[in-house]
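Quiz preparation item.
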């Protein structure tokens, strides 16, 4: 079994798989999108707006999301599968989600990543077009340090970023390059934390280096930004998002995990929410 964490320096998808952020799937039958079969009890086939359940595995690499009654499976070199959930049930402690040519089984059994040793709460089996793959989902356990991790912003003080839920590409690392088309789709800000807790990334418009140092068990300290930051002008909403991210980042004083989502918080309770990627 495998989870989504990666040591610093590993290449991005398609050569790696992703950390999952989002929330653990609810078993409540009262949520919208529930489906029933005769064999089991109903479970939620969708969740609250903006929430995304993620799972992944490797050998072969795959990445799965469940959001708004829709399963999305991505694999290197293959077409993305996007399927509506047709049946969702709980059976013998498992949560089972069926779609047209896709089946997902989530089991409440701990799952360990052979690459990082990280343990996650759930084991996930995905069967797509006749092939069954194994991986991990659910909450990460025992995270006390953020060193050597990479993150992408999914929400700025309660405002969800649609682009924050797609797998980052190398374009996220080069938004300050002359060839970058700043009028294109919104780039979600990113946060890379190195082995000593120092940060770098993209604010969605420009590269930045420094500004924060992460300690263990929730500690965050401000620092000066380094000399490698860029100063490209970005139009309209791109600039607004970049400025909002920068202001919140500079004001952050603590961090905590909400399931698999990293939350940076200011003294006046404003937040940045991020999901982990590798």
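Solution:
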């Amino acid at each position: 079994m495998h989870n989504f964490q990666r040591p610093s320096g590993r290449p991005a998808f398609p050569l790696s798989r992703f950390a999952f952020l989002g929330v653990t799937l609810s078993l409540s039958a009262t949520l919208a999108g529930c489906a029933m079969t005769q064999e089991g009890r109903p479970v939620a086939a969708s969740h609250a707006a903006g929430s995304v359940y993620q799972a992944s595995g490797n050998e072969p690499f795959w990445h799965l999301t469940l959001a708004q009654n829709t399963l999305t499976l991505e694999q290197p070199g293959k077409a993305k599968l996007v399927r509506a959930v047709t049946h969702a049930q709980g059976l013998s402690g498992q949560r089972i989600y069926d779609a047209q040519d896709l089946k997902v089984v989530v089991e409440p059994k701990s799952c360990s990543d052979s690459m990082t040793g990280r343990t996650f709460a759930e084991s996930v089996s995905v069967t797509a077009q006749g092939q069954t793959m194994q991986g991990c989902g659910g909450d990460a356990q025992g995270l006390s340090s953020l060193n050597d991790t990479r993150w992408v912003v999914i929400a700025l003080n309660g405002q969800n970023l649609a682009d924050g839920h797609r797998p980052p590409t190398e374009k996220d690392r080069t938004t300050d390059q002359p060839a970058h088309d700043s009028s294109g789709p919104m780039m979600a800000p990113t946060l890379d934390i190195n082995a000593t807790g120092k940060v770098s990334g993209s604010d969605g418009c420009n590269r930045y280096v420094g500004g924060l140092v992460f300690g263990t068990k929730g500690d965050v300290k401000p620092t000066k930004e380094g000399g490698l930051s860029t100063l490209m002008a970005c139009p309209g909403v791109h600039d607004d998002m970049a400025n909002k991210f920068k202001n919140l980042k500079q004001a952050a004083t603590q961090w905590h995990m909400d399931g698999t989502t990293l939350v940076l918080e200011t003294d006046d309770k404003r937040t940045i929410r991020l999901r982990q990627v590798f």
